Structures are given as structure tokens and as C-alpha cells.
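Honest question from a wet-lab person: if I give you the sequences of every part of a complex, can you actually get the arrangement of the whole thing, not just the pieces? Trying it with mine:
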Amino acid sequence: MTARTEVVTTGEPKVTERKHRRQLSEGAKAERRLGWLLCAPAVVVMIAVAAFPIIYAVWLSLQRYDLRFPNQAKFIGFSNYGAVLSSPYWWHALWVTLIITVVSVAVEFVLGMLLAILMFRTIFFRGTVRTIILIPYGIVTVAAAYGWQYAWTPNTGYLSALFNNSAPLTKTGTAIAIIILAEVWKTTPFMALLLMAGLSLVPEDLTKAARVDGASAWQRFVRVTLPLMKPAILVALLFRTLDAFRIFDNIYILTQGSNGTYSVSILGYDNLFRALNLGIGSAISILIFICVAIIAVIYIKIFGAAAPGTEG
Amino acid sequence: MAATTRQKSGWITANTVTILLVLIPVVWIASLSFKEPSTITDPTYFPKQWTWSNYKGIFTSSEFTRPLLNSIGIGLIATFISVVLASLAAYAVARLKFPGKKALIGLSLLIAMFPLISLATPLFNIERQLGIFNTWIGLIIPYIAFGLPLGIYTLSAFFREIPWELEKAAKVDGATPFQAFVRVIAPLAAPGMVTTAILVFLFCWNEFLLAFTLTSTIAARTAPAALAFFTGSSQFAVPTGSISAAAVVITIPIIIFVLFFQRRIVAGLTSGAVKG
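Yes, you can. This is the full assembly:
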């Protein structure tokens, strides 16, 4: 190697490999600097608003910090976590949240798949269907939730009237079912759009070949289409599961978490902004954060969902 | 392969059912908003007596007009800044090689998945100390931060598809770098940026939890949060009609967006998800 490092004084014709490589790396360095420079503003904002506050929340969660008695604030280690984890309210909230998440994501997946196939295959008013289903996606959750609340209010709602003027929002089971209904109505279109994008990537030839080989429509769907759609399915499920786990708006408007319909987010909110207990509230926030992280890890590690954007 | 009559009617039924399932709850809110306050407790689907009084009521009260203004202002400012910052980062992600790219994507993904309630407390406390609690800035900054992951994600997928060789070609033809950017690249990048702006704006317009916890008066409260505080046109009236009217008003922009930008919204939502 040393033999080839003569100093090049006269320039271009005698450029050695080594020199060439160094030039490249200088170009790469400039590119690197530009890359960092362009990303810096976005990174600063994201760290300031998300990363820093979450660390601050960890610190708050280790304090006894009640806004009504700010002078008694004190470092108490993991006591807040002990208090939350030994409280039946936390486990009830977690249970409610898990039921809402699992049921609504499962129902959305089935309906979303049907809707995706409908939008993909239908010949009649395809454009109308594709446009119309964006309304639930775009509508303000709070506005839609009021619609559902009034629909199920006795003496006001057409749905309540259909069921003998009943008040289903006042009973735990039916109230949770209505929360799931509101959630499913609002987010199935999103699921369907992601699944439809996955459907469009399945090569037509493969399903045709399977048809020639005598596979029934169901077999073609399960054996050919579904496996090819797996990446799209996993991304759609990951997004929706994490989103459903955070459910707040729908519950807050429909029941305010009364009659045992509170989710973990509602519980966190109640402790923070009603009881003004920042210590306990922050501990709940951090526990929710950990749950979300666990769900993401399960999807990515066990199901092999590619974290969107990581490849390509 | 001509569709048989049975297949045809099957598709038509399925489509009709879908359209009805979407529209029934939406039309219900609209029809509630047109009901006379005295007939609101009459559970018919359509009003028997139509009235504009609910709309007149909400537009004469600053309890709704001010939050509506807040929603528009906060949404537009946050969307604009978010899309500008996201474009810079997305350009870098799509076009440049630099270490830390994966970390950036990881960070934005992490933020996109953040449970908002986990941030509500610390932000509440920090904003009170900084004196930006219950101000536009206090909502704009978090909205930018949550618009960014969506923006970086969608835009980098769009930017990857742009034929960047055209830029070189324009330079070979004698265009300055500035001209090459303005005449060639910007028009190609614009659709992706418009799409991203729509998605970010929809997020800001829809957001409830932060708008609810980081504000205390109508000075900065946005429309969705204001709905939860409605008391009705008089102290004794049930706010059902006013809330429904306000819900309709904040839904109208969404329907307009959807009708005008249907293709773009779909493209934006699905861009990153399947192509990776």
C-alpha cells in the first residue's frame, strides 16, 4: 500500500485509488453534515416535546407530588408504582382497555378486509365507496362520539328507541359494546385502506394460476392472497392495536369512564387532572407507555412485522 | 368475464350497505342539529320541525366561535411548520446517506406510537412553568411534534419516487440549481407535500386529549375540546342541539377535504405502509 501513496501534485491524470477514496469520503462527509443539518430541526422539536417530557414524567412518577399539597413533594422511589399496581382500579382499567383493543381490532380486521376486497373488486360505484368511507376516517372523533351518545340516549336517540327506549350507556357491558362500536365505525376505513394497498400488491397471475389448479375462492384467498399480504396486514394491525390501546376520546364523550368503562388513559387522566396527583398520574402514564412498548415489541419480534419505514 | 346478474346484485347490495352504514350516523348528527329544542327529546331519526336556531345560537356565542378560530389558526400554523421541517428531514432520509438515519426513523416511529396521556402530565407541568399553558403556542408546539412523524414518514415515501435525475438533466441544459429546484423538483414534490399537509391538518383538527388538558379557557381551547364544555344556549336548555350543530360545523371542512382530495388522502395514508 505504501508504494501507491506518492504525493500527487499535478492532479487529475495520476489520481490514485487512495486519493480517490479520500475524495469520496469527503463528499460523504459533506453529505453526512447536510443530512444531519436537515434533520436537526425535526429532531430538536421531537426531543423537546416527547423525549424530554417522558423523562420528566419518570422523575415525577418517583415523587410524592400532589398539586393540592405542593409543599409536601418528596422523592419516594417506586411507591407510586406499588400503589398503582396493587390497586384494583388499574387492573380493571387494563382489562377494559385490553377487551376494547382486542375486540375492536379483530372486528376491524375482518370488516376492513371485506371492505378492502369490496373497494378493490367492485365494478359499481367504486369511486363513491372509496370517497364515502373517508368520512369516518376524517370526522372528528369527538363529534362522532356525541352522535353515538345521543343515538343511545333514551328519549333522544333513534337507536335507543329501537331497543325499547333502553339506556345501554349506563350498564358496563353494553356501554363497552357501544364504545367498541364507535371505535370500529371510525377506524375500519383506515384499516381497509391499508389492507387494500396490500391487496393491490398481490400479483394477479398467482391467483389465476391457483384458479387453474382448481383452488376454490376461499383457498385462493387463504393460501395465496393472505400470505402475500402479510407485511401490509401486520403494519395495519400494529398501527391499530397501538392506537386502540390509547383510547380516550370515545370513552370520555360516551361515558366519561363511569360504570366501570374506564380505560388506562381515562384512569391516568382522572388521577392527573381531577385528583391532581401528579405522582400517581405519572406512574400510570409510564405504565401505559411500557404496555405500548411491549405491544410493539410483540408485533415486531414475534410476528415479524417490519417496523414501517425501516427497510427500503 | 361478464359478471352474472347475481354477482352484480351482490356487489350493489354490499356497496349500498357500506354507504348506508357510513352515512346513517353522520346524517343523524346533522338531523339532530336541525331539531327544535322542544322536540329534541323526540327520538325520531329526522326532525319533525326544522330550525336553524341551534346554528344561530352557536355562532352568536364566543364559546364556539373563538374555539373554531383557535382550531383553524393552531391547525394551519402547526401544519405549515410541521410540513416544512418534515420536508427537510424527509429529503435527507430519501436522498442522503448519513449515520443516524435509522435512529431518526426510530425516534419518529416511537413518537407516532406515544400514548398521548403519558405526555399530558409532563407537558401540563412544563407549560405552566414556561407560561405557555392555555396559549396557542402551547398547543402548536406539541402538534408540530406529533405532525412530524406522520410528515417524515409520508414525505420520505413520496420523495423516494421522485425521478431526481431530472434535476441533473435540467442543470446540464443550463438551469441554475435554483431554477432546477423551482421548475423541476418543486412541482414534482408539491403533491406529496399537499397530501402530507392534509393529513397533518386532519390530525390537529381532530386532536382532543392535549387540547383538553393543555387549555383552561376559550383563549386557546380548540373546537373538539370546546364541545365537551358546551352548556347550551341558555342555562336551562339541554346542549344537545348546540353540540350537534357544532359537530356538524367542524365536520364540514373534513367532508370538503375528502371530496376534493380523495385520491391524495388515500395515497398518503398508504404510501409508507406497504412500500416500506
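Two things worth pointing out. The CA atoms of residues 123 and 192 of chain A lie 17 Å apart. The longest helix of chain A spans residues 17-61.
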